[in-house]
Amino acid sequence: MKGSSYVRFFAMIITSTLVMLALMYSTVYAADHIWWSSTKAFMAVYMGAAMAVVMLAFMLGMYTDAKKNVAIFAGAALLFAGGLWLARSQQTVEDVAWMKAMIPHHSIAILTSTRAEIRDPRVRQLADEIIEAQRREIAEMEALIAELEGQ
Fold first, then answer.
1. What total of structural domains would you count in the chain?
2. Dihedrals φ, ψ of 93, to 5°?
3. Is 145 left (phi over 0), alpha (psi -120 to 50) or beta?
4. 90-128 pLDDT, tens per residue?
5. Alpha-carbon dihedral sign for residues 6, 7, 9, 10
6. Which candidate, 43, 41, 63, places its Cα nearest to that of 53?
7. CB of 33 within 8 A of CB of 104?
8. Where would you find the membrane-spanning parts of this chain (predicted)?
9. What's the burial of 119, exposed, middle or buried (CB within 10 Å: 0-12/13-18/19+)?
10. Domain that holds residue 14
11. H or E, element range at 27
12. What's the N-to-C CA distance of the chain in angstroms?
């Protein structure tokens, strides 16, 4: 029973991490603005690692194998540090990966600029300029991705 509870713990953490990754795309303006982002994947990894630490700490009474708990805490710390470093350093992100990460980011700016309850005309003008700029930049990035990927 004890071993299966750890399997269930890891299944819970992995599932939650994948759900968090999917939810990071929930604020894009349009579905076609969803592109794979290694940066978002790195973020999901370090958030999942942090969640593993928090959840295990709260449920230590259910998980009583000290060696496994230490291994989980240590592994989570390594995953957290590695994921955070990869997300912040952008060491693995090149041209196409950068644009694929930026499209959802720009799309969020379109969503918030379009749907916010903006009443001041100066702020509305700024929001409209942001919408126009982000749409133009998304189109440019999509064209560059197609060109660089040979489509």
1. 1
2. -100, 115
3. alpha
4. 999 999 999 999 999 999 999 999 999 999 999 999 999
5. positive
6. 63
7. yes
8. 6-31, 43-64, 70-87
9. exposed
10. 5-150
11. none
12. 53
- Tokens 């290694």 -> residue: 38
C-beta separation of 100 from 37 below 8 A: yes
Distance separating alpha carbons of residues 50 and 54, to the nearest angstrom? 6
| Residue type (1 letter), 12 | M
Q: Cα–Cα distance between 5 and 120 in angstroms, integer?
A: 55
**Is-contact 144 97, C-beta < 8 A?**
no
The token pair at 79 is: 């995953």
Asked if 35 and 115 touch (Cβ cutoff 8 Å), the reply is no
76: exposed, middle or buried (C-beta count within 10 Å: 0-12, 13-18, 19+)? buried
| DSSP calls for 104-137 | HHHHHHHHHHHHS---SHHHHHHHHHHHHHHHHH
Both structure tokens of 90: 């952008």
pLDDT tens-digit readout, 67-79: 999 999 999 999 9
Please count the CA atoms within 13 angstroms of the CA of 106 that sit on its side-chain side. 23
